[in-house]
Amino acid sequence: MSVQPGWYVDPADPETRRYWDGEGWIGAPIPVDATPPEGPPPVEAPPPAPVPQPVTSPGAPPAPAPPGAPASAPPAVPGSAPPAAGPPPGWQPPPGYGHPGLPPGWTPPGWAARMPEPRPHGLPLAGLGARLIARLIDFGIVLALNVVVNGWFVWRLVQEMAPYWREVFRRAMAGNSSTEGLPQIGEQAGGLQVAILLIATALWLAYEVPTMASSGQTFGKRVMGIRAVPLTADQPLGFGRALRRWNTLGLPTLLWYCCGLGLLLQLIDAISPLFDHPLRQALHDKRAQTVVVQVPRHTPTATRSEPPGDTP
C-alpha cells in the first residue's frame, strides 16, 4: 500500500507536520496547525564543505581561521569533564519510519525502539474490544430484523424438516443407527433456505451500508464511540467505499448454504485485525482502504474539524 505525496502529521511528533514524497519524509517539520505550502518544501542547501586545517609543527601557534569559517571548539581544560554528547545543530531524525511506498508510521524490521502507535488523522486507533462489542450490537439488531421479516420463512423450513430430524433423533436415542425408511425432507426446504439467506443478506446490507456511507458509524459503533474513516482523508466513506467494505464481510452469508463455507470466511475476516500491524485493519478495511478510530467523547462527530492532510 502506498500513500500519495503530501503534508501529513509526523507520527513521531503529532505536534508537527512534514512532507511525505511517497517514499519517505523530506524537508523540515512545520507546526501542525500551520497552513502547509503548496507542493513539496524547498530543497535545503547542502552543508558547507569542511575547511582543511593547515598542518603546524609542535609548539607553533595555531593558524588563523579563514574568513567565514566556523569557530572551532575551545581546547579542553585538564581535569574538566568532557562536553556532553548530543546531536549537532540542525540534526533531523531519519526521514520516515518504513520502507519506500509504505505508509508513515510503519515499523521497519529490526528497529530496536518501539515505534509510536499511528494516529490516523490525529485520532487513536479503536481498541479490538470496542470493535467486537460494536459488531455484536449490530448483529443483535440484524437478528431482530430477521426475526420480524424472516420469521415466517424459518417457521416453514422447520415444518419441512421436522419429520426427518424427529425420526433421526428418536432412532439415536434408541441406539438405532439405521438410515432406512427415514422420512423425506420436504421439497420446499431447499428453496426456503435460499430465500432465508437472501433476505438475511439484504437486511444486513440495508442496515449497515447507508449509515456507514454517511457517517462511518452503525448504531453499535456509535454506542462504542468508534468510527471508520478512509486512510486518505477524514471524511465520510461514501456509498461505493461503504459497499466495498461490507461486501467482504456480508456477502459470504450467501455461502452458509455450502457446508458453512461463508461462516468460515466471515470468521477469518473477523479475527484478521489481531494479526495486522500497525493499523489493525480487517480484511474488509484493507479492501476499502479504511481504518477504525476512536472518536473523542467530548467532540461531536458532525462538528469536529481537522486540519487538511492528516496522517493516513
UniProtKB/TrEMBL annotation:
It holds the Pfam family DUF2510. Keywords: Cell membrane, Membrane, Transmembrane, Transmembrane helix. It is found in: Cell membrane. Residues 1-115 are annotated as: Disordered. The chain crosses the membrane at residues 136-155, 254-275. Residues 125-288 form the RDD domain. One of its GO terms (cellular component) is plasma membrane. Residues 37-107 have a biased composition (Pro residues). It is a multi-pass membrane protein. The keyword Transport does not apply. Residues 5-37 form the DUF2510 domain. PANTHER family: MEMBRANE PROTEIN, PROLINE-RICH ANTIGEN HOMOLOG-RELATED. This is RDD family protein. It comes from Micromonospora globbae. The lineage of its organism: Bacteria, Bacillati, Actinomycetota, Actinomycetes, Micromonosporales.
